[in-house]
Amino acid sequence: MTSLPHSRSRASARPRSAMAVSAAVACLAALAGCSAVGPDFVRPDVDAAADWSQRHGGSPELSAPRESSATLPADRWAVFGDAQLLHLQAIAATANQDVRTAALRVLQSRMDEATVSAQRGLQVQGQGGITRQRQSESGSSARLVNLIGGTDKQMLLDALSAPFTLYQAGFDASWEPDLWGRVLRSEEAAKANTDGQRAALQQARLSVEAELARSYFSMRAAQRQQQLLRAELAAAREAVQLLDAQFSGGLSDESALSQQRAQVASLQSTLPAAQSQEALAMNQITLLCGMTPGTLNAELASDGVQLDSRPLPDLRLGLPSDLARRRPDIQAAETRLHAATANIGIAVADLYPRITLGASFGLESVASSTFGDWGSRQWSAGPSLTIPIFDQGRRRSTIVLRELQQQEAAVAYQQAVLAAWHDVDNSISSYVAETQHASRIAERLRLSENDADLAQARYANGLTTFLPVLGTRTQLLESKRDLSDSRAREQTALVAIYKSLGSGQLP
Fold first, then answer.
1. What is the pTM of this model?
2. I need a labelling partner for 501 at 20 to 30 A (CA). Which of 218, 248, 347, 364 fits?
3. How far apart are CA 259 and CA 240, in angstroms?
4. What is the pLDDT of residues 173-195, one digit of tens each?
């Protein structure tokens, strides 16, 4: 009868114990919802001018016009009006190895982010096993028998050391409340790293697009040069024939003939350089498209490439204040600063105690027949506490290290922004200068065409020989070659502007 009060005492203790555990869990959950330790990331401000001309170095004549701060074109490469260039850009967007590598790094970073987030949830693992064991007669398990002694000592030792089979199965569960925001800051850093990889992917795409466009225009310029050189070479050889005939007839001296032959040799020596430029640019295009050399030979053949007389699009740069959000390298620098700031919080959280709530349940038996019995159960439940006491200053040093790394990331961000302003201004200056140069060469070409027409008219009316006609033709072809080179440099400079401005789409 005496067991009844004791039973009621145990029964009444269980609800109180459950209530205490529930209260402790609720308290820990409330603490877990507190703000994380360490500094919060604040996006740095970028000092931007009202228009691009206010951030220009050098001659004011090479600064961007004020009306250039208009909306950027949605498709940077469509403004050139070249369908083949757009086709090559589409191939490179999916086949380029650098772009594919950057895309895989984004996926890897996402998996790292998921791995970090998994620390926040409940961790459960199961285990089981069947082991054959024998305990030592002189080990720690036999120490109590040796101390007690007695006549049954050997019998107890024999029984204790007898081999037996142990059957075990169960599971463990644990949960660590994020009291100080260690996991929260880890997630923040992982998310910043993922954003940084996305920016790196955008930078890879932009670099491939710009390099492909530059190589394409270089290839077309080399092909036009070859065509114009061959035409100029044909005119020079025709002049040699006329001068040779005049020299043979005693109508002129040999110096004019020698000069014209030297001109032919000079033109012939220039042709291999243009062919080499075409080959190098073509191989660069195939490399950017993820193809082997020669794959695109037929598609990229000159096939009568003419000088592109279409004017380039108006210079549209967008607003200077949007530069930091368009440039992938600035975005990547910002994400590194964000991750470095979050890492300080992770280091600070290591100064505080860590509490883990754990529970386990399992079955254990030395006989297979009783393994499933309720009496074979074993369990445990309760919190565990880890308190940092002394570590030779390691944790404090880690915090200082993370703070220094954050300062370095802040300086790197400022350098990225500063380099971006210079990059844009340099590309604008080159483009404006080349545009002015091209306009002057175009005027020279117009005058050369007039001279050629006049020389042809004089020859048709019998006023001069055919040599002046050939001379004006040569000058005309030289002007066309110079204009072709200038137009290629103008296109390349515009490509540099588009690259320096970033993606053209705000994140």
1. 0.82
2. 218
3. 9
4. 999 999 999 999 999 999 999 99
